[in-house]
Amino acid sequence: MINCLLIDDEPLALKLLEDFLEKIPFMNLIARYEEPLKALPVIESGSVDLLFLDILMPDISGIDFYRSLKRKPEVIYTTAYSEYALKGFELNALSYLLKPISFEKFLQACNRANEFIERKKNKPMAAKDYFFINASHKLFKIFYSDILYLEGYKDYTKIHLKNNNTPMLVLYNLKHFETIFDEKDFVRVHRSFIIPVRMLNSVSRKSVTIGNKIIPVSDNYRENLFSVISEISA
């Protein structure tokens, strides 16, 4: 069961999404709000798995509101303006729904969210030191210790490996790897990069270095990166 929360300043839009959610058995609506700030206590309690969030609202945009959250549930953005789609995905959104929202599109987004969240919840606590992945119609064994960094290209990811000048291109996005990697060992630092902490040579507010590679650190991921580093710093 996925615990979700609706935020939209339009009452009719809220009612539509609420009606949609009632038809989907694995979705549990916790609450709905027209004013995002009123939702803060519920979100910060950690009880929300998935947030349906309108982008354009009077006092604060959905994007700025999501950035401000200390606890960030998975998010699906809703808006009547398609130009905000890229901005939503830069913030690592699971999906983007363009109004008027059809039930078919809504159900597709919920199914993807359910698959992702359940996989994340059921991620085994004790992981092996390697995994297998499909690339070029073959299964390849990859040791975590051989990964330099991962670079995302929409639905694809380049896995950069030690002692291999050519990265491995696989048909998985970066969110897939976030679900199989330990979040304390592999940290997302940018919408296009996940890095293994063990490979870091240096860290600044704007970038990290791994070998000779300079990797950007974006505002959305900086706080989590420094939190992970602080836990292992002497």
What does this molecule look like?
The protein has 234 residues and is α/β, with parallel strands linked by helices. 30% of the residues lie in helices and 32% in strands. The chain has helices at 11-22, 40-44, 62-68, 85-90, 103-121, 174-180, 219-232, and strands spanning 2-7, 27-33, 50-54, 74-79, 95-98, 130-135, 138-143, 147-153, 156-161, 168-170, 186-190, 193-196, 202-203, 207-210, 213-216. Strands 2-1-3-4-5 form a five-stranded parallel sheet, sandwiched between helices. The chain has a five-stranded antiparallel sheet with strand order 10-9-8-12-11. A three-stranded antiparallel sheet has the order 13-14-15, with no helix packed on it. The radius of gyration is 19 Å and the shape is globular. It starts with a strand and ends with a helix.
Taken from the alpha-carbon principal axes, the silhouette is globular
Helix and strand succession? EHEHEHEHEHEEEEEHEEEEEH
Average pLDDT reading: 88
**Tally of individual helices:** 7
- Main sheet? 5 strands, parallel
Report helical residue fraction: 25-40%
How far apart, in Å, are the first and last alpha carbons? 40 Å
Q: Which structural class best describes the helix and strand composition? A: alpha/beta
The strand order across the widest sheet is 2-1-3-4-5
Number of distinct beta strands: 15
Stretches with pLDDT under 50, minimum 5 residues: none
How much strand?
A: 25-35%
Rg on CA atoms, Å: 19 Å
